[in-house]
Design a protein that fits this description.
Layout (H helix, E strand, L loop, with lengths): L1 H23 L4 E2 L23 H4 L7 E7 L4 H15 L4 E7 L4 H6 L7 E5 L5 E6 L4 H12 L1
């Protein structure tokens, strides 16, 4: 009987973990300069805004926004992310999608702290990384990023 309870507990724990992962997977979060501390005017964190160039990503930056997707050859969600972003940017002026092979650009992956594929960085026209998402984003999440850029 104890085995049944252990099995049910394991199934429940796995379900909770899957729901938690689904809730954050593909969600864009803002990045950028570290907040300024009120006490001494210094950054409260060592993280600062990352800036990318066309040479870094192997493609041109968009005049409004660029989605930089880090992918790997064995990644199934990467293919779906590529199709989604390509479809969304096709109808938007000044928005680009550049895919970077993570395996071939390990130095850049380390520099940007890319921990999984797909990871999508949102880059402004100056090359500053202003957002990121790990996992497969949903269309409405991508559209929300574009709407926020227009605001």
């Amino acid at each position: 009987m104890i085995g049944v309870w252990v099995l049910l507990g394991a199934v429940a724990l796995a379900a909770v973990a899957a729901l938690a992962k689904r809730a954050v997977d593909g969600r864009f979060r803002a990045t950028g300069p570290a907040p300024i501390s009120e006490h001494d005017g210094s950054s409260s964190s060592e993280e600062s805004a990352e800036v990318l160039t066309a040479a870094d990503i192997g493609g041109e930056l968009g005049s409004r926004l660029t989605f930089v997707q880090f992918s790997s050859s064995f990644c199934s969600p990467c293919r779906a992310t590529r199709a989604l972003l390509s479809d969304v940017v096709r109808t938007r002026d000044g928005v680009e999608h550049v895919e970077v092979d993570a395996e071939s650009h390990l130095e850049l992956v380390r520099r940007l702290n890319i921990l999984r594929t797909p990871t999508v960085l949102v880059v402004d026209p100056d090359g500053t990384v202003v957002g990121r998402a790990s996992g497969l984003p949903r269309r409405e999440q991508v559209e929300a990023v574009l709407a926020q850029a227009d605001a």
